[in-house]
Design a protein that fits this description.
53% helix, mainly alpha, single chain
Length: 106
Protein backbone atom coordinates (compact mmCIF):
# COMPACT_ATOMS: atom_id res chain seq x y z
CA UNK A 1 0.00 0.00 0.00
CA UNK A 2 1.35 3.41 -0.96
CA UNK A 3 1.50 5.97 1.84
CA UNK A 4 0.23 9.42 1.06
CA UNK A 5 1.46 12.39 2.99
CA UNK A 6 -0.16 15.74 3.44
CA UNK A 7 1.87 18.67 2.25
CA UNK A 8 1.59 21.51 4.74
CA UNK A 9 3.10 24.87 3.87
CA UNK A 10 3.69 27.66 6.34
CA UNK A 11 3.30 31.16 4.97
CA UNK A 12 4.00 34.47 6.72
CA UNK A 13 0.65 36.22 6.55
CA UNK A 14 0.02 39.93 6.93
CA UNK A 15 -3.24 41.15 8.45
CA UNK A 16 -3.40 44.72 7.16
CA UNK A 17 -1.85 47.29 4.85
CA UNK A 18 -0.26 49.03 7.83
CA UNK A 19 1.32 45.84 9.10
CA UNK A 20 2.57 44.97 5.62
CA UNK A 21 4.20 48.41 5.35
CA UNK A 22 5.86 47.89 8.76
CA UNK A 23 7.26 44.54 7.61
CA UNK A 24 8.53 45.99 4.34
CA UNK A 25 10.48 48.54 6.38
CA UNK A 26 12.48 45.76 8.10
CA UNK A 27 12.88 43.29 5.23
CA UNK A 28 16.42 43.22 3.85
CA UNK A 29 14.98 42.21 0.47
CA UNK A 30 11.85 44.39 0.41
CA UNK A 31 12.43 45.02 -3.29
CA UNK A 32 11.38 41.44 -4.12
CA UNK A 33 8.05 41.87 -2.35
CA UNK A 34 4.96 43.39 -3.98
CA UNK A 35 4.99 47.11 -3.26
CA UNK A 36 1.44 47.23 -1.87
CA UNK A 37 -0.61 45.11 0.52
CA UNK A 38 -3.31 44.58 -2.11
CA UNK A 39 -0.76 43.25 -4.61
CA UNK A 40 0.74 41.00 -1.94
CA UNK A 41 -2.74 39.80 -0.93
CA UNK A 42 -3.60 38.98 -4.55
CA UNK A 43 -0.37 37.00 -5.01
CA UNK A 44 -0.65 35.26 -1.64
CA UNK A 45 -4.26 34.29 -2.34
CA UNK A 46 -3.24 32.78 -5.69
CA UNK A 47 -0.45 30.80 -4.01
CA UNK A 48 -2.86 29.72 -1.28
CA UNK A 49 -5.45 28.54 -3.79
CA UNK A 50 -2.87 26.70 -5.92
CA UNK A 51 -1.58 24.78 -2.90
CA UNK A 52 -5.10 23.95 -1.68
CA UNK A 53 -6.17 22.85 -5.19
CA UNK A 54 -3.25 20.42 -5.38
CA UNK A 55 -4.10 18.79 -2.05
CA UNK A 56 -1.86 20.84 0.20
CA UNK A 57 -2.60 22.72 3.39
CA UNK A 58 -1.62 26.31 4.14
CA UNK A 59 -0.84 27.32 7.68
CA UNK A 60 -0.81 31.08 8.04
CA UNK A 61 1.93 32.37 10.32
CA UNK A 62 1.04 35.66 11.97
CA UNK A 63 3.49 37.85 13.87
CA UNK A 64 4.37 41.44 14.53
CA UNK A 65 7.50 42.85 12.92
CA UNK A 66 9.15 42.83 16.37
CA UNK A 67 8.28 39.15 16.94
CA UNK A 68 9.58 38.24 13.50
CA UNK A 69 12.80 40.23 14.00
CA UNK A 70 13.40 38.63 17.43
CA UNK A 71 12.75 35.11 16.10
CA UNK A 72 15.13 35.63 13.18
CA UNK A 73 17.84 36.97 15.50
CA UNK A 74 17.39 34.06 17.93
CA UNK A 75 17.54 31.48 15.12
CA UNK A 76 20.32 33.12 13.09
CA UNK A 77 18.19 34.07 10.08
CA UNK A 78 18.21 37.24 8.04
CA UNK A 79 15.14 39.41 7.62
CA UNK A 80 14.67 38.10 4.09
CA UNK A 81 12.95 35.38 2.05
CA UNK A 82 14.88 32.60 3.80
CA UNK A 83 13.99 34.07 7.18
CA UNK A 84 10.32 34.38 6.18
CA UNK A 85 10.23 30.76 5.00
CA UNK A 86 12.02 29.48 8.11
CA UNK A 87 9.75 31.44 10.43
CA UNK A 88 6.58 30.31 8.66
CA UNK A 89 7.75 26.69 8.63
CA UNK A 90 8.56 26.86 12.35
CA UNK A 91 5.16 28.37 13.13
CA UNK A 92 3.41 25.74 10.98
CA UNK A 93 5.25 22.92 12.78
CA UNK A 94 4.31 24.44 16.15
CA UNK A 95 0.62 24.61 15.18
CA UNK A 96 0.63 21.04 13.86
CA UNK A 97 2.36 19.73 16.99
CA UNK A 98 -0.12 21.55 19.23
CA UNK A 99 -3.10 20.23 17.29
CA UNK A 100 -1.74 16.68 17.03
CA UNK A 101 0.56 15.90 19.96
CA UNK A 102 2.74 12.84 19.56
CA UNK A 103 1.22 9.67 20.92
CA UNK A 104 3.25 7.92 23.61
CA UNK A 105 3.54 4.15 23.62
CA UNK A 106 2.66 2.48 26.89
Amino acid sequence: MEQMGIRAVGMLWFSSAGQYKDFLAIFEDAEVMPNTFSKWQERATQMHDNIINTGGVIIKAYASPDEFRAWCAAHNHGLDAKGRMAFASFQAAQKINQAHPAQKNH
